[in-house]
Structures are given as C-alpha cells and as structure tokens.
Amino acid sequence: MPKLSNRVARLNEDGSDGWEVFYRARAMVRDGQQVTELTIGEHDITTDPTILEAMHRAARAGHTGYASVPGTDALRETIADRVQARTGVPTTRENVLVTPGGQAALFAAHMAACTPGDAALFVDPYYATYPGTIRAASAHPVAIRTRAERGFLPDPAEVHRLAADFRATSLLVNTPNNPTGAVYPRLTLEALASVVQARDMWLLSDEVYDTQVWQGSHLSPRALPGMARRTLVIGSLSKSHAMTGSRIGWLVGPEDAIGSLIDLATCTTYGVPGYIQDAAVFALSQGESAEQAVAEPFHRRRQIILDALEKQDIVGVIPSQGAMYLMLDIRKTGLSGRDFAERLLDQHRIAVMPGESFGRSAAGHIRVALTVEDDRLWEAVHTLCDFAKGLADA
C-alpha cells in the first residue's frame, strides 16, 4: 500500500485519541452489562419532537436536494440575528457559514487561520479533538498549560510567551469550557485579546456551550473592541437544542474570511441538507426558553454532585461555572485519572473520562458528564466517592 500522508497518519501523535474508557464502556453495554455512562456530552433526552416534525415536514416538502453551500438564507439570517442580539456586534448572513456541526466549523476555522506549518495555540485541558484538528489543517498544535489551582484559566503572560516563541498565527479558546466548566471572565478575555492584537493573530472562539452558564456570564471575545475583524466563532445546535446527531453548526467571522471558507466548503462538505437547516431555523425560533429547558437538568445535576461531595474530603471538585460536566480531583487516591477510571469501570460499572484524555494539565482528575437521570447520578457519585476513599485509605 502507498504511504499515507503525514497529515492523516499523525492525527493522533501519541497513539491515543483519549476515548479508550468510553469505547470499553460501550462495548460492555453491547454485551448486555449495566453501565452508568458519565463519559460523553450526549443528552439523556432526544431532540424535541416538534423540531423533528419540522425536519420531517421540510423533507416531505422536497427540501432534500442540494442546499446552498454557505447555508440557506433563512438559517444564516436567523443565526446572524441570534449572534447580534446576544453580543451586540453587527452581524449579517454574510458573516455566517453553516457547517455540518461544530467540529466542521472548528476545522474550517483552522484552515482559514493557519498556513501549513504555522503554530496554533490552544488551552490545555482541551476538547479531545483539538490537537488532531490542528494537525488536519497542516498546522502545529502548541498547548498552553493551565493549573487546577487557577481554575484552569490561561495565564496571558504564558500565552504571549508561547505566541512569540512559536510565532503562532492563532489562539483557540473555549468558554464555557469542556472539560473544566470554566467560564472565562472579562479580564481574562481582554488580556488574551491584547495578546492576539499585539501579535496580529486570529482568535478562534469555541462557544458551543454558550447556553449552559451557571455562574457569571458568557462573553464572546468577538464583542471586545477591535476583535470582530480577527475572531472566528464556532457555534452549534448540538448542545443547546439536543441535536447532536443532526450535525448542524456554524462559523461566524469577517465577511472576507467567510467568503473564502465558502470556497472551502464547496471542496469539502458541500453544505448541509436543506431539511435539517429548515429544522434548525424552527429550533432557533423557539427562543431562549427552549434552550433553558434543555440546559436546566445539567444545572440541577451539577448541584447534586456538589452536595454529595460536601460529605467527604477525598474527591475534590473544580468549581464549574458552565457546561454539562464537572472535573473531579482524585489525586488523593494516588492513582492517575486513567487508572482511576479504568478501575472504577471494572469494579463498579461506572464510566467516566480520565482527565488525561484532555491533556497533561488535567492529570489526576476525571471528567463526569451530567447526562443520566438524577437518582442514578446521585448513586453513581456516592459509589465513586466510596471507591476513592477506599483507595486513599489503603
């Protein structure tokens, strides 16, 4: 067989995509075992039936052929209106590219920001696909290490140092953050914006969790002075409307950049099915109350875990201001996050994500997804804490 390109062969340079525990848990479920899955950000509800009905109507009405590659005018305008209303930044459909989910928008953003060989900065801990996405764009991923003791917020001075040392062309941030739940405060974002402006970089902002904010408020860096012309924002309906499988997302940025990315979409995805876009217009038209209904269980379950953890002193918690996860500190057990997760799955049939799946900064932690019903989550957390205490006491 001919040799594969480095672009493909080196997507996962360390030989792991970070999802081994998840794959094992799913295999156990397929074999008929009862597993409490607290791994991926998949809602325990399905897409609202009224959205599915809108999708069905659009398909039956004939919107099943090629759709406009940039996205339908109706959906691009709806997204633009939503973004402008939430950020105060003037936004039109010419600033919007509709993509097959947020992941496609993330890839497109790096294709726009990075020439092959360029360094692309991203914050560690990170969503597991970030380094591979950067490599897929033929760029060089450079992780910005953070510390749990600082709430996993990036140090702007370190960002500036790395940007200068590697001559980076882009910085990727994610707030509210997966996996840590951190919501970046204004001062942090302003400092990062200053670095980006001083180094003439692109800022890529992954905002797919913008409807899941439990403390503080979400600020899009695109809304900061002078940042609209150098910011690309990744958005999606996956988390806000429980539409993960519909693969509907977007990229918002300067008109010229979006125009060039439409050319990229023509050569890659060739757009998103029209009937799904029609359903997305309907979903967004339901307003913030519909989004809050999807988000509310995660807010409630976050408190369930916090209440449970107050009754013990082995498992620590990183205060989470947003998103559908909590990061737990299990370093007192003496195990790595990976070993803890493997043993918890083997001994108690509870699946969590090792912190190491999200980078070196999260070593000794685990990520818990708030994606099962309340009673089952309560039971799982108490079992987890008892398991951790047994390890610490051994």
Q: Which key features would you list for this structure?
A:
12 strands, 14% strand, Aspartate Aminotransferase, domain 2, alpha/beta, 42% helix, AspAT/PAT-like, Aspartate Aminotransferase, domain 1, single chain, 2 domains, 7-stranded mixed beta sheet, pyridoxal phosphate binding, 5-stranded mixed beta sheet, 394 residues
Overall description:
Belongs to the class-I pyridoxal-phosphate-dependent aminotransferase family. GO terms for molecular function: L-aspartate:2-oxoglutarate aminotransferase activity; pyridoxal phosphate binding. Keywords: Aminotransferase, Pyridoxal phosphate, Transferase. This is Aminotransferase. It comes from Thetidibacter halocola. The model has no long low-confidence stretch (mean pLDDT 96). α3 runs antiparallel to α10, α4 runs parallel beside α10 (274-285) and α11 packs parallel to α13 (374-393). The strands form two sheets. Strands 2-8-7-6-5-3-4 form a seven-stranded mixed beta sheet, with helices on both faces. Strands 1-11-12-10-9 form a five-stranded mixed beta sheet, with helices on both faces. The chain is α/β, with parallel strands linked by helices. The chain starts with 5 loop residues before the first helix and ends with a helix. β5, α8 and β6 form a beta-alpha-beta unit. Helices cover 42% and strands 14% of the residues. The chain has two domains: 6-46 and 289-393, Alpha-Beta Complex (Aspartate Aminotransferase, domain 1), CATH 3.90.1150.10; 65-286, Aspartate Aminotransferase, domain 2 (3-Layer(aba) Sandwich). It is globular. The longest helix is centred in the last third of the chain and has 23 residues, at 287-309.
